[in-house]
Amino acid sequence: xxKPLKFExxxxxxxxxxxxxxxxxxxxxxxxxxxxxIQLSIDHILFKMxxxxxxxxxSYEKNSRGLEIFSxxxxxxxGSPKALVCFCHxxxxxxxxxxxxxxxxxxxxxxxxFAMDYPGFGLSEGLHGFIPKFDRIVDDVIEHxxxxxxxxxxxxxxxxxxxxxxxxxxxxxxxxxxxxAWTGAVLLAPMCKIADDVVPPWLVTQILIGMAKLFPKRKxxxxxxxxxLAFRDSxxxxxxxxxxxxxxDKPRLGTALELLKTTQEIEQKLEKVSLPLLILHGKxxxxxxxxxxxxxxxxxxxxxxxxxxxxxxxxxxxxGEPDETILRVFDDIxxxxxxHC
Length: 341
Hints:
- Pfam families: Hydrolase_4.
- The chain is of the alpha/beta class.
- It has a single domain (12-339), classed as Alpha/Beta hydrolase fold, catalytic domain (Rossmann fold), CATH 3.40.50.1820.
- The chain has eleven helices and eight strands.
- The protein has an eight-stranded mixed beta sheet, sandwiched between helices.
- It starts with 11 loop residues before the first helix and ends with a helix.
- The model has no long low-confidence stretch (mean pLDDT 92).
């Protein structure tokens, strides 16, 4: 993790761009711009999704904290979308790689899809992979998607949160701050608890918690290979390396502490979740704990809730599974959204 990646057929100039220190946003933006055509041409089912008849827009805009945030939208070119789907990405990730294919599939099914990179992730400003306060990201997400929903073209439409992994935890916290603002939420392998296989031993965790107060930005937390744990299909696991602006170093101490605190907080508030829910989780997920998705389903006060558990599936349900599983998960998501519009 964090070592320079070598790609076949990449010239020396492009390799130099990819090998740059990605701590700050400039090198991440240069890497994405230089590499995006290669990314979108890999042999992965997500990049075979049709994009004819879609209007795609990218933008950079300063938020109320003065940070330049990258966002992107995918809309059906003709007619009004059925509803808005607002994406919350996972830890270390960006909305510019695998999610491109996910968004195209949803938009081709009639939905207006909106996504953003959080501060410190992807193409947004901020120290790479650093979360000083998880609630700040929650506020950033609420601010951004509130503007989307206030657009006169969309104001009357249903709106759904779509959270993946850490983004699932973020979507739940958005809902808890805005209990009546959303039509429903789709949660893929939500990070309501980090799996025991990923969390360091208790004693190490206690030492790291103490160190985080002194050195929050240090990259010191031991971590297993997340691609190995998250992707069941071996070819797709290798393709994860093409996500060149994903944060791949050891987690920063302050970030790890915030994620731990967030999951502990969410575990205590499951019964306060009240919106319509679709929860999807792989039974063999070694990154986020599927048993806590079961607890969310059982404890949430929502009267409209559904839990889909997939035999043998790992963490990355839409990126790392065999094609037939990916298509099944898409069908389950789109059917549920269609029923709730």
